[in-house]
């Protein structure tokens, strides 16, 4: 039965004698928690009715989330029995005092095993779907919030941190930085701009493709291919960051990128990208072979001009991104052999299929940020399809492994030795499909991180020996550079 | 500057909440809400009146804005600023304000809609009708937010790419012009008179 909330609450508080009659038509939970719920709901409705210019919704939402949402199951549960918190103070008209109030309330929360303060960079600490809390908070305030959550008991007197206007001004003034390029910091800036860890993984997959090729191992060509691929990847990543500055500044995961922080200018970033991309592609084309150079250029184009804009237009971006991830091992193969074989395409197919459980699991925990940032990802718009596709491609990895011997990539042992890890990732994908919660998404993501190197290593150990090498033993287990 | 407003209808956030949206007095007019959000979005990017030291010759970048997360930049105006440099500076300043307005509106609107969802949740709690909010319902909310703002986002993307390219090209031109000036100014002094 729909009972207008305000009427219900007013009735309860004003007419205790009437409580019995009202109680008959109101649920038992409501009776038990009436006064506390009343306070909370009243302030909520007060919030709602306030002038929009006072909605500092990050902090308020965070507060509400802490009040009403628990961890521990696959769904967002409302708390039927609220914690013993005092009545929420009526929120002040001034925007900044809201921040202070939130800090105050945080400090006196009683400890609850399920309520862990979400660290801004750890998206996996809660089941709660709610976003974005301290996104807008300067780091000082965030630290204060964190400290508040570490307090043990509600019996202490709450620590009131009231910041004067002057102190706040001073704090904000200290956060202004001169836009001067610090040469000593440049290597670090370039590493972050080029997404060095991602580039390293891309180079590893290209190296695996090179090593799997059934030709004598040429260290010189190997080094050139890895270098060229690495440079192309740096260039693509830099252009991607150059395009996405305002979007990155609004997402927790990416708000500390160099261009967002202004450590280098956009022109500098583009120059760096050109300085990496042009020599990289030239190296691949001239020193390795034109096919590899073409694939490198194609990959840069696909990543910067197709994937990056598509991220905001359609969910097709995930499939384009999977192709982008599949090309490096093919590049490695063509660098070694100079031709595109079915086995090369199979290596690419491994990476293509792997991208889906990897990315879908990652994006599951970032739905709020993606939605607010305007990114169209499967996890945001088609969550069912997101999990289904991740499961489908995890299972496809098993099938692709069986194709290894058929395509001449590996011996018949490969499908057998890779079966355990493929089954494990499929099991995690199945769990993710059924549970659809942050925990299973996180597990699937972390599994995908070690699954790929393991798969490549196993493929390398089961590499099909080249028959034309008479007498010479092929280095079938080349150490993969990491 | 006119802020384009999304059209938000309660039924777009899910069938289960259609009948339970709180009708708060004075908020029946959605246009009023849009205008109010727009006013808030026009709030200044700068959160403090910071002024760099007068002898500083570089630009200064500040902390991210509370609403839009855009970092304000205070530009250093050199004594002999060329027309090109002035054009670049004005374009960057204008782009910063434009970005701030878009993102402030976006973030406030998104969080306001989330707050609506919470209000509905509370109501459902009181009436005992519903106690959980699963991922599918949240996905409906996220999807509706993206769908109602689709055109707005697409227009923003196009305009952002255009501005970004223009700024970078202007920066390139300014850098080349300055380098050329440095070289040509040095040549008469380096040649023996």
TrEMBL record, chain A:
Its membrane topology is listed as: Multi-pass membrane protein
**Region forming the signal peptide:** 1-24
Q: Name one GO molecular function term.
A: protoheme IX farnesyltransferase activity
Q: Which UniProt keywords apply?
A: Heme biosynthesis, Membrane, Mitochondrion, Signal, Transferase, Transit peptide, Transmembrane, Transmembrane helix
Q: Which InterPro entries match?
A: Protohaem_IX_farnesylTrfase (IPR006369), UbiA_prenyltransferase (IPR000537), UbiA_prenylTrfase_CS (IPR030470), UbiA_sf (IPR044878)
Asked if the Swiss-Prot or TrEMBL record annotates the protein with the keyword Transmembrane helix, the reply is yes
Offer a single GO CC term for the protein.
mitochondrial membrane
Identify the domain of life: Eukaryota
Q: Which Gene3D superfamilies match?
A: UbiA prenyltransferase
Q: Where in the cell is it found?
A: Mitochondrion membrane
Region of interest (Disordered), residue spans: 146-166
Main localization is: mitochondrion
* Gene Ontology terms describing biological process: cytochrome complex assembly; heme A biosynthetic process
Top-tier EC class: transferase
Q: What Pfam family is a match for this entry?
A: UbiA
Q: Among its keywords, does the record have Cytoplasm?
A: no
- Give the catalysed reaction(s), semicolon-separated: heme b + (2E,6E)-farnesyl diphosphate + H2O = Fe(II)-heme o + diphosphate
EC number(s) reported in the record: 2.5.1.141
| Transmembrane annotation, as ranges | 198-215, 291-310, 317-336, 412-432, 444-461
Q: Which PROSITE patterns match?
A: UBIA (PS00943)
**NCBIfam families found in the cross-reference section:** cyoE_ctaB (TIGR01473)
Q: Which family does it belong to?
A: Belongs to the UbiA prenyltransferase family.
Please give the name of this protein.
Protoheme IX farnesyltransferase, mitochondrial
What is the protein's species of origin? Gadus morhua
From TrEMBL, chain B:
Q: Name one Pfam family in it.
A: COA8
Which GO cellular component terms are attached?
mitochondrial inner membrane
Cellular localisation: Mitochondrion inner membrane
Supply the InterPro entries for this chain: COA8 (IPR018796)
Key words, A-Z: Membrane, Mitochondrion, Mitochondrion inner membrane, Transit peptide
Provide the primary localization: mitochondrion
Similarity remark? Belongs to the COA8 family.
Q: Write down what this protein is called.
A: Cytochrome c oxidase assembly factor 8
Source organism of this protein record = Gadus morhua (Atlantic cod)
């Amino acid at each position: 039965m729909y009972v207008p909330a305000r009427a219900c609450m007013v009735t309860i508080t004003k007419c205790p004698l009437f409580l019995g009659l009202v109680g008959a038509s109101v649920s038992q939970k409501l009776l038990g928690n009436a006064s506390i719920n009343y306070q909370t709901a009243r302030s909520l409705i007060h919030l709602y009715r306030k002038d929009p210019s006072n909605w500092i919704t990050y902090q308020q939402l965070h507060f509400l989330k802490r009040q009403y949402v628990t961890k521990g199951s696959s769904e967002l549960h409302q708390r039927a029995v609220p914690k013993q918190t005092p009545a929420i103070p009526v929120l002040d008209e001034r925007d900044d005092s809201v921040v202070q109030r939130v800090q105050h309330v945080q400090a006196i929360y009683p400890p609850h095993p399920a309520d862990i303060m979400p660290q801004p960079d750890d998206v996996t600490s809660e089941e709660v779907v709610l976003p974005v809390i301290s996104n807008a908070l300067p780091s000082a305030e965030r630290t204060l919030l964190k400290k508040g959550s570490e307090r043990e008991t509600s019996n202490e007197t709450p620590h009131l941190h009231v910041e004067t206007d002057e102190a706040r001004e001073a704090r904000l003034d200290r956060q202004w930085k001169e836009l001067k390029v610090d040469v000593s910091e440049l290597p670090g800036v370039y590493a972050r701009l080029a997404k060095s860890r991602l580039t390293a993984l891309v180079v590893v997959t290209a190296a695996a493709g090179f090593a799997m090729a059934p030709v004598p191992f040429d260290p010189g060509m190997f080094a050139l291919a890895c270098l060229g691929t690495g440079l192309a990847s740096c260039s693509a990543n830099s252009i991607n960051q150059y395009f996405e500055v305002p979007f990155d500044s609004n997402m927790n995961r990416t708000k500390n990128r160099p261009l967002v922080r202004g450590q280098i200018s956009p022109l500098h970033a583009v120059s760096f990208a050109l300085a990496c991309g042009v020599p990289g592609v030239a190296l691949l084309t001239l020193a390795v072979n034109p096919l590899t150079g073409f694939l490198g250029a194609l990959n840069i184009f696909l990543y910067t001009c197709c994937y990056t804009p598509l991220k905001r237009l359609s969910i097709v971006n995930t499939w384009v991104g999977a192709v982008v991830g599949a090309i490096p091992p093919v590049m490695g193969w063509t660098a070694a052999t100079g031709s595109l074989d079915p086995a090369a395409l199979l290596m690419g197919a491994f990476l293509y299929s792997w991208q889906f459980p990897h990315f879908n699991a990652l994006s599951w925990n970032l739905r709020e940020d993606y939605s607010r940032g305007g990114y169209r990802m499967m996890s945001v718009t088609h969550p069912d399809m997101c999990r289904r596709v991740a499961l489908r491609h995890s299972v496809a990895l098993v099938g692709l492994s069986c194709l290894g011997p058929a395509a001449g990539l590996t011996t018949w042992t490969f499908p057998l030795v890779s079966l355990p890890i493929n089954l494990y990732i499929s099991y995690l994908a199945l769990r993710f499909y059924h549970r659809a919660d942050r925990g299973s998404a996180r597990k699937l993501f972390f599994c995908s991180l070690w699954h790929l190197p393991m798969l490549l290593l196993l493929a390398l150990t089961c590499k099909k020996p080249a028959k034309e090498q008479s007498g010479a033993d092929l280095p079938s287990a080349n150490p993969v550079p990491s | 500057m006119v802020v384009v407003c999304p059209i938000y209808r309660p039924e777009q956030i899910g069938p289960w909440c259609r009948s339970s949206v709180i009708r708060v007095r004075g908020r029946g007019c959605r246009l009023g809400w849009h205008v109010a959000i727009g006013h808030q979005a026009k709030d200044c990017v700068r959160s403090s009146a910071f002024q760099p030291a007068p002898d500083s010759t570089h630009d200064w970048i500040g902390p991210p804005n509370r609403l839009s997360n855009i970092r304000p930049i205070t530009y250093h105006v050199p004594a002999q600023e060329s027309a090109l440099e002035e054009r670049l500076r004005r374009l960057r300043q204008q782009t910063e304000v434009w970005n701030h307005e878009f993102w402030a509106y976006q973030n406030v609107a998104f969080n306001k809609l989330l707050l609506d969802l919470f209000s509905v949740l509370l109501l459902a709690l009181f009436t005992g009708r519903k106690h959980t909010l699963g991922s599918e319902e949240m996905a409906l909310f996220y999807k509706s937010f993206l769908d109602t703002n689709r055109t707005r986002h697409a227009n923003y993307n196009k305009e952002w790419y255009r501005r970004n390219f223009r700024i970078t090209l202007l920066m390139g031109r300014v850098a080349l012009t300055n380098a050329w000036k440095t070289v040509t100014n040095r040549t008469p002094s380096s040649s023996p008179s």
